Amino acid sequence: MNEINQETAHREIERVARESYGRLVAYLSVHTHDVASAEDALSNALVSALDHWPREGVPKNPEAWLLTAARHSLIDAIRHQKVVLESEPTIKFLTEDSVEAALPTSTQFPDERLKLLFVCAHPAIDPSMHTPLMLQTVLGLDAARIAQAFLIAPKTMGQRLFRAKTKIRSGGIPFEIPQEHDLPQRLDAVLEAIYAAFGIGWDDMAGADQRGRNLAEEALWLARVLLQLMPGEAEVQGLLALMLYSESRRAARRDANGRYVPLSDQDPKQWSLPLIEEAEHHLAEAFQRGRVGRFQLEAAIQSAHAERARTGRTDWAAILLFYEQLLRISPTLGTRVGYAGALSEAKGPQAGLAILDSMGHEAVAAYQPYWAVRAHVLQKVGKTSEASNAYDRAIGLAEDPAVRKFLLHKRG
Amino acid sequence: MQFALMIYHTPEEFDMRKNDYSHPHLGAWRAYYKALVAAGVYVAGDALEVPETGTTVRVKEGKRRVQDGPYADTKEQLAGFIILELPSVDAALEWAARCPGASIGAVEVRPLAPEAKRRGFTGE
Fold first, then answer.
1. Which domain holds residue B82?
2. What is the per-residue pLDDT across A67-122, written as a single tens digit (0 to 9) for each?
3. Count of domains in chain B?
């Protein structure tokens, strides 16, 4: 074995693992209904590749090689646990002979990731685990990395993932694409889970929490996979557009000294034009399908902000209209706070304040964007002492030191 | 459930205490306490003096050993604690992440042991 071969082999394993992980896990688990075993089998296959490929060369079809190796590992594991398995009715068909028959061998195997995405976001699974499950089973992220992003102890995240996969195996969760009448709701859960991975907060005028999960790339990848699998769904394209708009402003959110810059103060020259153009393309296509939804409206709000790059001004009246539509279909806390902010820009701070005042105290007690927007609006109407109180709440609830510093400065 | 947030400071952060309240870091701490109280989760808390003021006592084989300084000789030192009443460890970690101390030093989150209190191992 020589060094170059080993390096090539390792690079190839990494590439195949990244690109094929989800496809292989999906394909294997669709046949066994057991995501955890499919993952174990695939990781055994990857270990085996690390051993074989540097010595024997990278196979012509690395994905097929991994599938075969994973399949053997899965069959071994099933034979090993046969006694246990026989008591489980869902997999009793897996007798020794039919194991071989049931498990796929085809080199041109179909892409079953869509089924896997629907399994991960199934209503029987704790909604807070939808995103972690997707990140692990479709992208192959490890529990520790997911735990970092979700602010959960790594051991706890590992246990929760384990429990969720047990539920998939023994809870009879079907590996199928939902029926027509279930589809909108089920698809919404998938989109929510992808958006939750993106995890970028709010960069509207009052500044606020940027609790980035550092998974933006992964979320965009998932959205692109989903779009590839469901090219006709307007909301899939809406979500992708929304995330691309947000991503286009990443560099503009900090100045040269690392200070936080709110959207209204950002220099549009710092925005990524190619990402904005890609977002616009997706949003326009989505709108053509004539089925407006939450993500398209949120993307439309971001597209109105992006217009400032061309026109030099922000069309708050247009933004307000999109918020009004959004409120009708998705009256979340975030939407209402965003609406209040847009209202105060379009119709004056008093109007925005009235909306903020009408929101329940309990619901907003620990919701940072509410206090950031409230502080901004109170400052505009000249209620200085109330404003500085609200700024304190926003500062105290912020996680990002740059945001805290920005708000402290605004508080004065 | 009650959780302790144990706040560990670097020497630099201990030093920042000498500033007045217009210092951004101290302003952030004040705002953090305000948010904790307003959210109705604050139970108790206090800050500790700088580690050099600590004295560590051990009794070994009937002999007292008294040592200058804190228990552990590490760069980051216990600087204070906050007790919070929260529904879950997830919520406790979220408040820990918001703590201004977390972006300079570290914050350890640990549940209190109510069993110890029930069995009379703690004063009340």
1. 2-114
2. 989 988 988 887 777 655 554 544 444 444 555 555 666 556 788 999 999 999 99
3. 1
What region, left, alpha or beta, does residue A174 occupy, with left being phi > 0 and alpha being psi -120 to 50 degrees?
Answer: beta
Who among B28, B36, B38 is closest to A404 (CB)? B28
Classify residue B88: in a domain, yes or no. yes
Share of chain A above pLDDT 90, in %: 65
Task: Give domain status of residue B123, yes or no.
Answer: no
- The rounded distance, in Å, linking the Cα atoms of B101 and B7 is 7
From A391's Cα to the closest Cα of chain B, the distance in A is 8
A363: contact with B, CB 8 A cutoff? no
Give this complex's ipTM: 0.86
> Domains in chain A and their CATH numbers?
3-170 (no CATH), 183-411 (1.25.40.10)
Q: Which of A364, A408, A409, A410 to mutate: most B Cβ within 10 Å? A: A408
Output the CA torsion sign for A137, A139, A142, A146.
Answer: negative
C-beta of residue A103 within 8 angstroms of C-beta of residue A31: yes
Say if B26 is an interface residue toward chain A (CB within 8 Å): no
> pLDDT tens-digit profile of B15-38?
998 888 778 889 999 999 999 999
Least confident of A39-43, A249-253, A385-389, A406-410: A249-253
Min distance A152 CA to chain B CA atoms (Å): 7
Q: In this structure, what CATH number is given to the domain that contains residue B39?
A: 3.30.70.1060
Quickly tell me which residue has 């997830």 as its tokens: B90
Min mean pLDDT across A37-46, A198-207, B11-20, B33-42 is at A198-207
Does B108 contact A at CB distance below 8 Å?
Answer: no
Contact call for B89 and A153, based on CB within 8 A? yes
* Residue A203 CA neighbour count, 13 Å, CB half: 28
Question: From A392, which residue of chain B is nearest by alpha-carbon distance?
Answer: B31
B108 to chain A: nearest residue by CA? A153
Question: Residue A52: helix, strand or coil by DSSP?
Answer: helix
Angle subtended by helix axes A333-347 and A316-329, to nearest 10: 150
- B122, part of any domain: no
State pTM to two decimals.
0.88
Residue A211, pLDDT score? 56
